């Protein structure tokens, strides 16, 4: 039974250590994409005060390679690796135009995917860069502005009657030798491409390490990562649960699409049936990716399910620190606020070893992908979360 009450699951015992070796070609590949530059790492004193910690950092993915979300990192790498696997090896190249020329003998090719918004637009952008076709399937509750953004990339968009998970199933059925499915979630017999999506997200964390070193910041004690199907959180676990790191990783998802939290509680993959009615549209997923599941089950320190109101509070708070963060983008900050401000604050902080000397990191995964909704939400409330210190006796 679905409840609107925020929930938190803490992993019993210590999270596992993950031994993952990043692909050395990944960052070189991303640097070849048009307009590549590391996204800003923003020092966030208002967020730090609200959480009752010394330092808070926000990785701001509001403008990544000309798109308003981080998804292009995983989509571009997965598209490249899948094309290379099927049609390579490619001759040396330095621009996407040179790569596109090598694909011409194999045309026509269509990239197919399902999306709640950002991943589909990223796949469509990669198709446009490589002179390929794109076919994107979206759930029926997708807001028009996000559909229009995908269509503006030159993609064909079909609305599927049902949820995001229904769109995933519909996309999978379109796979053939001329239609390459580029999904960020896995299913039985389909794990290669989602694995490359997760690997592509690793550039975010490599940038953060360098930016913290450059700005004199210490490595985070706690990292919050949004969870839809779990791919970004899997990438965070792979990076921060590596040997010689002791960072706690907290996954955050909407209450009405808390498939990871439900699975953790059950000890096995568990579906949350739709409809998944949350403003955190990019996280409205009823099934955890089976590829991500082992990493999430073993490597997460906690899983937090938050309400739309908590996401909105986080959007307004991040705006005070100069970060434009959409509904899904602010979810990570909302999850940490749910842990550190409110019910069971002392016990929650103790479980994650959060102290006034801690450093936290959140990934703002998107900008204002629905500008009208963003403006309405940020202007709607003048109240803000009180500092965690004010909540403790």
From TrEMBL:
SUPFAM superfamilies: Tryptophan synthase beta subunit-like PLP-dependent enzymes (SSF53686). Keywords: Lyase, Pyridoxal phosphate. It comes from Deinococcus humi. Gene3D superfamilies: 3.40.50.1100. InterPro entries: TrpB-like_PALP, TrpB-like_PALP_sf. Its EC number is 4.3.1.15. Its cofactor is pyridoxal 5'-phosphate. This is Diaminopropionate ammonia-lyase. Residues 34-338 form the Tryptophan synthase beta chain-like PALP domain. GO terms for molecular function: diaminopropionate ammonia-lyase activity.
């Amino acid at each position: 039974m679905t409840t609107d009450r925020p929930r938190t699951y803490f992993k019993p015992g210590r999270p596992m250590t993950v031994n993952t070796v990043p692909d050395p070609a990944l960052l070189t590949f991303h640097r070849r994409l048009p307009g590549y530059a590391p996204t800003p790492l923003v020092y966030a004193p208002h967020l730090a005060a609200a959480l009752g910690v010394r330092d808070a950092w926000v990785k701001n993915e509001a403008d990544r390679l000309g798109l308003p979300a981080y998804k292009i990192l995983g989509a571009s790498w997965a598209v490249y690796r899948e094309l290379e696997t099927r049609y390579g090896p490619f001759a040396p190249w330095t621009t996407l135009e040179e790569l596109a020329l090598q694909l011409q003998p194999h045309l026509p090719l269509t990239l197919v995917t399902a999306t709640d918004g950002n991943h589909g637009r990223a796949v469509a952008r990669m198709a446009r860069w490589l002179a390929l076709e794109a076919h994107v399937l979206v759930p029926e509750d997708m807001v028009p502005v996000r559909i229009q953004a995908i269509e503006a990339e030159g993609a064909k968009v079909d609305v599927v009657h049902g949820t995001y998970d229904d769109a995933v199933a519909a996309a999978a059925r379109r796979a053939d030798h001329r239609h390459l499915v580029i999904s960020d979630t896995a299913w039985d017999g389909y794990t290669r491409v989602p694995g490359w999506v997760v690997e592509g997200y690793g550039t975010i964390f490599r940038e953060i390490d360098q930016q913290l070193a450059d700005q004199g910041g210490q490595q985070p004690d706690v990292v919050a990562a949004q969870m839809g199907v779990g791919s970004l959180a899997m990438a965070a676990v792979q990076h921060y649960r590596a040997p010689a790191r002791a960072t706690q990783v907290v996954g955050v998802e909407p209450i009405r699409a808390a498939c990871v939290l439900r699975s953790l509680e059950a000890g096995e993959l568990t579906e949350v049936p739709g409809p998944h009615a949350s403003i955190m549209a990019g996280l409205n997923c009823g099934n955890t990716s089976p590829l991500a599941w082992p990493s999430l089950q073993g490597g997460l320190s906690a899983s937090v399910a938050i309400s739309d109101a908590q996401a909105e509070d986080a959007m307004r708070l991040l705006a005070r620190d100069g970060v434009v963060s959409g509904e899904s983008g602010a979810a990570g900050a909302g999850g940490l606020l749910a842990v550190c401000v409110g019910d069971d604050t002392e016990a929650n902080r103790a479980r994650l070893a959060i102290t006034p000397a801690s450093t936290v990191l959140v990934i703002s995964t998107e900008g204002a992908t629905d500008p009208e909704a963003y403006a309405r939400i940020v202007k709607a409330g003048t109240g803000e979360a009180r500092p965690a210190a004010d909540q403790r006796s």
